[in-house]
Amino acid sequence: MKSSTCIIGIIGMFSFLLCFSACQSQEEILREQYVVEGMGQYERHCENCHQKDGSGLKDLYPPLAKTDVWKRLSAYQLTCIIKYGQKDTIVVNQKVYQNYMPGNTKLEALDIAELITYMREKWGDDKRIFPLDSARLALKNCH
């Protein structure tokens, strides 16, 4: 009796998980993939300077969390900054940062789309995916 109850429980749990995953839209699944991959990109390419929690590093590197950056800069502008770096000063929360940010020239459009999707969700209160085609277009138009 116990083994049949256990088997029924396992089948019930499997059915629940299958139904739950099937209830997600393709768009939601893609967004979640972007967020997970973007988190990895952030850890590899951004975290050292901007910190794990996005707080920045004192007066050297600007924060990404709790900033006006997400309202002032478009995803297109961020794409160019991530790929080619920031040579000029940048003002974040009314504070001037003058350190050079090197570009991540090896990142492809997909990497950047995932990275921006992750950062906007984490610190920009924006759950929208930054589409691959938009990242490609932004890269073509960087100055």
From TrEMBL:
Keywords: Heme, Iron, Metal-binding, Signal. Pfam families: Cytochrom_C (PF00034). Residues 36-121 form the Cytochrome c domain. InterPro entries: Cyt_c-like_dom (IPR009056), Cyt_c-like_dom_sf (IPR036909), Cytochrome_c-type_DH (IPR051459). The keyword Glycosyltransferase does not apply. One of its GO terms (molecular function) is electron transfer activity. Residues 1-24 form the signal peptide. This is C-type cytochrome. It comes from Aquirufa rosea.
